[in-house]
Amino acid sequence: MTPGVLGTFACTMHITCMATKTISLKIEAWERLRRARRSPDESFSEVVMRAEWPEVGITAGELLAVYGTSGPHLSDDALDRIDEADTADFPAEDKWDRP
Questions:
Q1: Cβ neighbours of residue 67 closer than 8 Å, sequence gap 6 or more
Q2: What pLDDT score does 99 carry?
Q3: What is the pTM for the complete model shown?
């Protein structure tokens, strides 16, 4: 730049700020995702965002209601084995308690 001459320097930069997360997929899952693309230029993110995920979970209150109306879920034999295992279970040795 020449002394006494005001120069203008313009720099334009465009960065798409998109948060990303790296994930690992089994090859089979990656292939399903790839086949689900509507076009070769559709991103995996767009494919995932199109997906519909069914609500399969239930709340603790709903679970208690199911238990209250449908009766026992374990056989008497299974409950006896659980009781047996529970009485035979001892706490682990305390590795920090040294003489």
A1: 73
A2: 62
A3: 0.39
